[in-house]
Amino acid sequence: MKRGQRIVACSLALTALGLPYAFPEQTSQGLGNKPALRRPESSGSVKTPDLKKSPDGAVVPTEPGKEVINHSSDYNAQFRRDPFRSLLTKKEIVVDSTGEGKRPSGVRGMLISELKLIGVAKGLSKERIAIVVGPDQKAHFMQVGDRVWDGSIQTIDDAAVLFVREFKRGTSVTRRQDIKMYLYPPIQQ
Description:
Shape: elongated
Radius of gyration: 35 Å
Number of strands: 10
Order of helices and strands: HEEEEEEEEEE
Strand content: 25-35%
């Protein structure tokens, strides 16, 4: 027997063996007793059972005897690492100055990277005041020592503001990073 004939014979045998399992009500003894299975006539629209939600959020049918299968799935990582994040980058944890996980409203809840310096003004006592715009598109006036979520203002010049960003690497040491924000981009030569 050739290879192609063997494949056809095997597939026919497997198909014949699988038919009683596909239609269990039609066995070899009862083929003449029951009518053959037919597809239901389609009228163009499929009637679905009326559904309602129970107080616990589960979907239940309003018609008794009807079963509703929920195919939604949830993924729970259960403290496992994200497989798509690089293992080579170091984790930075921002110091929470308020002791809470929720950022406060206003400029104290903004990150340094979210701010844009739009101007520097002089106050009545000749101290400089930085004018910054946050993601809320509002202007905020800040002085030396004012805090934002991840740092504070150390100095204000005529054309730049020096922020000190405080963050933790790992769990032990708090590190500082100086970030200079310019009013105009510096000229590169």
